[in-house]
């Protein structure tokens, strides 16, 4: 299905949703993005409910969200399944994400931590000091995998910097050379098949130790590496 036809389908089905279920939803949007699952092959995220900054006192009534459906992900799944029913999948995804909106409203305090994580991620991108554990307040999408907006963080604890590191992405094993650097290290990875819309960052950090409480933390180091299939 072409993007324009997909957009019209989403608009038509959104109009069929009872208004009370859209309370606090700023809009239902469509995107051209393809969002692969971080660990499972041939699995894609079809839609999301994205919380917006709270208004007023930050209580549940002030929580707003926007719902986004990803045309690229729908197309990727349609290519894998000849029986793919676009209308049925759009309706199921739309109603699923609206339920998430109600869940966000029930978890209003958690949004403060998520907003802080997003701010720290901007600081990382700008090359200024940031909290090395900020990504742990992102959205957990798989074991050891956290998401902040379009960026995905693979959390890995090591005793020392390895020369190479093995990791999985979207059901495929990869290996990357780790540059000489102190830990914690934020390693932005390129070269994976089906990359996320944003950055894929492998975070190498040491397990917390008692003596770490009595000294200043080591500033995070950022670097880049090209992944290759392996492992």
CATH architecture of the largest domain: 2-Layer Sandwich
Query: What proportion of the residues is helical, as a percent range?
Result: 25-40%
Task: Note the gap between the termini.
Answer: 37 Å
Count every beta strand, where a strand is a DSSP E run of 2 or more residues: 12
Backbone shape:
globular
Query: What fraction of residues sit in β-strands?
Result: 25-35%
Secondary-structure-based class equals alpha/beta
H and E string = HEEEHHHEEEEEEEEE
Largest sheet: 6 strands, mixed
Classify the fold: give the CATH topology of the largest domain.
Answer: Zincin-like
| Rg computed from alpha carbons, rounded to a whole number of angstroms | 20 Å
Number of helices: 4
- Contiguous runs where pLDDT drops below 50 for at least 5 residues: none
Q: Kindly report the spatial arrangement of strands forming the biggest sheet.
A: 4-5-6-10-9-11
Q: Determine the mean pLDDT.
A: 87
CATH class of the largest domain: Alpha Beta
Total count of domains: 2
Describe the structure.
The protein has 231 residues and is α/β, with parallel strands linked by helices. It is built from 4 helices and 12 strands. The mean pLDDT is 87.
